[in-house]
Specification:
The chain has about 375 residues and is mainly alpha-helical. It has 17 helices and no strands.
């Protein structure tokens, strides 16, 4: 009896996920995987900034605040995706371009430092790179979230509609696989860093910098993976359209099924107006010398987010609105917990003598444990 229970648990926890995977899941999963691989440069970036750039931990902590602001625009960007659903792939291409520019700047900083310094100060190039990357990732993340909606089928293979429980299970699986893809990217990053820094103790400073440049070159695979995912999604939709035409489906049905998000979406100018005010407000303070610019931007950001949530909840059913507000409150409290910042990592490097390879081992262990936790908890989320 106990053996049967264990087999049932293993089947529901691990094998059931594989059975629920659909070919249509792959495009958004590739974009999510690219987001996970973005961590490839985190260890290299920490050591390069610490050893080769004259920047303080306090400055980096402040820069992290400004680099996180593009994520505040996720709501208006999501609304923009709904309005231009058929052309949402363009946002992934734009995001990939911004990520490639960010990585290109770091490649040149590690290989052609003098040339870059003749154009702009080296720290300025680093700031530009740090600010470009999150703008690209938020664009791709918004589209990936939209792609998960169209990736989940609404019917069985024989055309019969899915019931509510089956649909919920597939959506839960899709979201779980999305997180799984991100963490799988982290695992891949850890393995690559372990390989590249296997002989870090015997590396000269010049060899280390060359290895850093190699990591940044490898990171150019990130935009390539996300773009490939979108192209695969386009191919899948057009192949499905051909199949529907051969089956005699009218063009209106094909358009409604494959190229529209569902009900027609009207632009909400309050959302776009709030976003425009936020951008102008943030840029104005960010470019000024005001001492408390970060604090004022935080207060303004919170006000804009609360306004946008209030507008959104008016369009949602009461249960969904309450769920949204509760989730937002939990995320806010979680994100509001102060972090230790880059100073902690520098302490680990200088005092505890952690090198690149050991930090990669720690990251790999964390990622693997997270993957296991996702799989174990997925059946509870599905029910």
């Amino acid at each position: 009896m106990a053996l049967k229970t264990i087999r049932s648990w293993l089947d529901n926890t691990f094998l059931d996920v594989a059975r629920q995977v659909r070919w249509s899941f792959m495009p958004p999963l590739m974009v999510y995987f690219a987001a996970g691989v973005s961590g490839l440069t985190s260890i290299v970036g920490t050591f390069f900034v610490k050893d080769y750039l004259d920047l303080s931990a306090a400055f980096l902590a402040g820069l992290g605040f400004w680099a996180g602001l593009p994520w505040v625009l996720k709501l208006p960007l999501g609304h923009l995706v709904d309005l231009f659903w058929r052309w949402k792939a363009a946002m992934v291409f734009l995001g990939a371009g911004l990520i490639a520019l960010s990585l290109g700047a770091m490649i040149l900083l590690t290989t052609e430092r003098e040339m870059m310094a003749a154009i702009l100060p080296v720290p300025t190039w680093f700031v530009i790179s740090v600010l470009l990357a999150p703008a690209g990732y938020v664009l791709q993340d918004v589209v990936a979230d939209a792609m998960t909606v169209e990736a989940v089928p609404k019917t069985h293979a024989d055309g019969t509609p899915l019931n509510e429980q089956e649909s919920k299970a597939l959506h839960t699986t899709m979201q779980t696989l999305g997180r799984f893809a991100i963490i799988s990217g982290f695992v891949s990053v850890g393995l690559v860093n372990l390989f590249l820094f296997a002989d870090v103790e015997r590396m000269t400073p010049e060899m280390r910098v060359e290895t850093y440049a190699q990591v940044y070159r490898l990171a150019l695979a990130i935009p390539a993976i996300s773009v490939s995912g979108v192209l695969l999604g386009i191919f899948i939709r057009h192949r499905r359209a051909v199949q529907m035409r051969r089956a005699g489906a009218p063009e209106e049905a094909i358009e409604r099924t494959l190229f529209t998000p569902g009900e027609p979406v009207q632009p909400d100018w309050y959302i776009f107006g709030g976003a425009a005010i936020f951008v102008a407000f943030t840029l104005g303070l960010g470019l000024s010398d005001f001492e408390y610019a970060a604090e004022v931007v935080f207060a303004g950001t919170l006000a804009v987010v609360l306004f946008l949530i209030a507008r959104l909840t008016k369009e949602l059913p009461d249960d969904t609105a309450r769920s949204l507000v509760g989730t937002a409150a939990i995320i806010f409290v979680f994100r509001a917990i102060p972090g230790v910042g880059p100073g902690m990592t520098w302490f680990e490097i200088d005092v505890l003598l952690f090198d690149e390879q050991f930090l990669a081992v720690l990251a790999l262990i964390t990622s693997v444990l997270t993957l296991v936790g996702l799989l174990v908890l997925r059946p509870f989320m599905a029910t």
